[in-house]
Each structure stands twice: as C-alpha cells, then as structure tokens.
Amino acid sequence: MDCKEVQKKYIPFIDNELRAGELEAFLRHLEECQDCREEYDIYYTMIMGMRYLEEESEKNWIDSEERLCIAQEYLRRHHIIYLGKLAFLAVLCIGCMFLL
Ligand SMILES: [Zn+2]
After folding, report:
1. If you measure from the C-alpha of residue 56 to the centroid of ligand 1, how many angstroms do you get, rounded to a whole number?
2. What separation in Å is there between the alpha carbon of 37 and the centre of ligand 1?
3. What is the pLDDT of residue 36?
4. Which residue from 10, 81, 95, 96 has the highest number of Cβ atoms inside 10 Å of its Cβ?
5. Counting beta carbons within 10 angstroms of the beta carbon of residue 6, is it exposed (0 to 12), middle (13 to 18) or buried (19 or more)?
6. CA separation for the pair 29, 19 (Å, rounded)
7. Does position 80 have pLDDT exceeding 90, yes or no?
8. Could you read off the pLDDT of 18-75 as tens digits, one per residue?
C-alpha cells in the first residue's frame, strides 16, 4: 500500500470499515511512514473533534494513538483465531490419515 492509498483510508479506518487485510497494510504503512502517521493524527483529531461537537455526546474520547493500539489488538486476535482454525484443520487431516 502506498501513501496515496493510505490517505484514502483514513476515514474508513476511523469508521472501522477496513477489512483485516487492508487494516494490516494500513497499520504497517503508518509504522514505517512518518508523513502518513502525522497526517493520520491530524485527520483523526479533526474528524473526531467535528463529530464530538456535532453529536454533543458523552462518548469516551480516545486519541489517535489509542485508536491504533485498538486496531493492532484487533488484528492480533484476528490472527490468533485464524491460526486456531488452521491448527484445527491440520489435526483433522492428520486424524483422517490415521484412519485410512
Ligand atoms: Zn506514507
């Protein structure tokens, strides 16, 4: 994913609309690219600030840094579930081989 693609994904990211694969590429890019990281911070603060004012809600404010941590945590869990499924399939295959 290059800088242009990442920049198009700030809002879907904030809205939680990225698929796991996209999310992973997005987060990896932000870790490596200081420019996009800074821009993301600005976008995030701006968008959340606007929404906060519009909705006048009592929503808990999480900052851009925290939002990234949550996404990383989500991905980690996603991977664990995926690996768990793979392990289950592997055990199943080995079981079948023994039966045959
Ligand atoms: Zn970039």
Report:
1. 33
2. 7
3. 97
4. 10
5. buried
6. 15
7. no
8. 999 999 999 999 999 999 999 999 999 999 888 878 776 666 678 899 999 999 999 9
Distance from the CA of 49 to the center of ligand 1, in angstroms? 23
The predicted structure's pLDDT at residue 79 = 85
CA distance 4 to 70: 23
DSSP assignment, residue 61?
P
Tell me how many domains the chain contains.
1
Per-residue tokens: 65: 């840094």
Compute CA 71 distance to the chain's CA centroid, rounded to the nearest angstrom.
4
Distance CA(23)–CA(71), nearest Å, equals 8
Residue ranges making up the domain that contains 35: 3-99
pLDDT per residue over 6-17, tens digit each? 999 999 999 999
